[in-house]
Amino acid sequence: MKKTNLSEFDPAAIPDGSKYNIGIIAAEWNPEITNAMLDGAVDTLRQHGVDAGNILVRRVPGTFELSSAADMMLDRTTVDAVICIGCVIQGETRHFEFICQAVSQGLTNVAIKHNRPVIFSVLTTDNMQQALDRAGGRHGNKGVEGAVTALKMIAYQNSL
Q: pLDDT tens digits, residue range 33-74?
């Protein structure tokens, strides 16, 4: 049977985050979506031991700005990972393609530059309903997935 809620995880497989400092950058654009994803990420981090004082949340105007904001955050703070939350919904022009490509490549470059996890919690959907389904709807919450990924990647990096 195909898994429909992509945000279901075995709690035993998620590392304890009590010693971690995690940054979250969320786009202001499509706030109904990004706010739900942000809430999911923060709640998940808290459930897995990250102290509220060790979660640094910042906002940027849109998804395109996530790459430069993540670079700035990693330059100027001591966060162990950055979760980047955004939502790009297909429109009638090629803008969608340009933004999605730029952000995915940009966040990859930032992670490599800083040698710290930069988590891609960006929805790239065809329509608003698909975004709602992935921001706490029937397919889970991409913010939850980003938080779990951050915890796992920090633990991975610490194990090396």
A: 999 999 999 999 999 999 999 999 999 999 999 999 999 999
Q: What angle do CA 99, 70, 84 make, to 5 degrees?
A: 65
Beta-strand runs (E) in the chain: 22-27, 55-60, 81-89, 118-125, 135-137, 140-141
Distance in angstroms (rounded) separating the CA atoms of residues 50 and 97: 35
User: What is the rounded distance in angstroms from the CA atom of residue 26 to the CA atom of residue 146?
Assistant: 12
| pLDDT at position 46 | 98
Tokens 């921001």, located at residue: 135
Residues with catalytic function: 95
In 30-65, which residue ranges form alpha helices assigned H by DSSP?
31-47
| Dist CA 69 CA 46 (whole Å) | 23
